[in-house]
Design goal:
Elements (H helix, E strand, L loop, with lengths): L5 E5 L2 E5 L5 H7 L23 E4 L6 E2 L10 E3 L3 H17 L14 H9 L17 E4 L2 E3 L9 H9 L5 E4 L6 E4 L23 H8 L6
Parallel strand pairs: 1-5
Antiparallel strand pairs: 1-2, 3-4, 3-5, 6-7, 8-9
The structure holds iron/sulfur cluster (SF4) and FE2/S2 (inorganic) cluster.
Length: 220
């Protein structure tokens, strides 16, 4: 008979969770919030942001906590130097193009980029030779303006529209550093849920963050 609980330790705290639990959820039980951007418990796992890298003893490489299931006897360390360095690297890449004009941003103070930059200790990027990329704001629909400069391509909005709203009008267009969130050329983002979480046209200059809110929940 399969074990009904899996025992492991996360940052020295013993937890017992059902088989199949993801490390990021098990960590919550240990009182540890693993930094993350693309993961949301209500959406399919994408594993695209790499912000949730953690060290798992006896594993040759760091693991993404959002897509790794618990195993009996696992010893997970979220504060290991390698994990911290990897997460700082992710932030450094995000800060290549993400603006840091926080005083003019509505989201300042409630921003997970700010929070994790502070927590992980990577406040700037070394890629300062070129100006930050600038893509114009796009009108996606009655309630949503897309501001690509503030989008970190977590793809939550894409997955939300596809899997929750069942209206797959958004996509990731282009690749690599040219990637952005695109909308089907013949569609509008006018689903009633597109404005969840207080997204209002004309108010925010920062709908990318508002879109995050739209798919966020209190347990985040
Ligand atoms: S618009 Fe927001 S939710 Fe969508 S990918 Fe960009 S940061 Fe993520
Ligand atoms: S939260 Fe794990 S890869 Fe994005």
């Amino acid at each position: 008979m399969a074990d009904s609980v899996i025992n492991l330790t996360i940052d020295g705290v013993a937890v017992a969770v059902p088989p199949g639990t993801l490390l990021i959820e098990a960590a919550k039980q240990a009182g540890v919030l693993v930094p993350h951007y693309c993961y949301h418990p209500g959406l399919p796992v994408a594993g695209v942001c790499r912000m949730c890298l953690v060290h798992v003893e006896k594993q040759p490489k760091l693991a993404i906590a959002c897509a790794t299931q618990v195993a009996e006897g696992m010893v997970v360390n979220t504060t290991a130097a390698e994990a911290k360095a990897a997460r700082q690297g992710v932030l450094e890449f995000l800060l290549i193009n993400h603006p840091l004009d926080c005083p003019i941003c509505d989201q300042a103070g409630e921003c997970e980029l700010q929070d994790f930059v502070f927590q992980e200790g990577r406040a700037s990027t070394r890629y300062t030779e070129y100006p930050k990329r600038y893509n114009p704001v796009e009108d996606f629909g009655p309630d949503v303006l897309y501001v690509p400069n503030r989008c970190i391509l977590c793809t939550r909005c894409v997955r939300f529209m596809e899997d929750v709203a069942q209206e797959p009008v958004l996509n990731v267009s282009e690749r690599g550093d040219r990637a952005f969130i695109g909308i089907h050329p013949e569609s509008r983002l006018d689903h009633p849920w597109a404005g969840n979480g207080g997204l209002m046209r004309g108010l925010p200059r920062f709908p990318s963050i508002e879109l995050i809110r739209a798919v966020s929940s209190p347990q985040m």
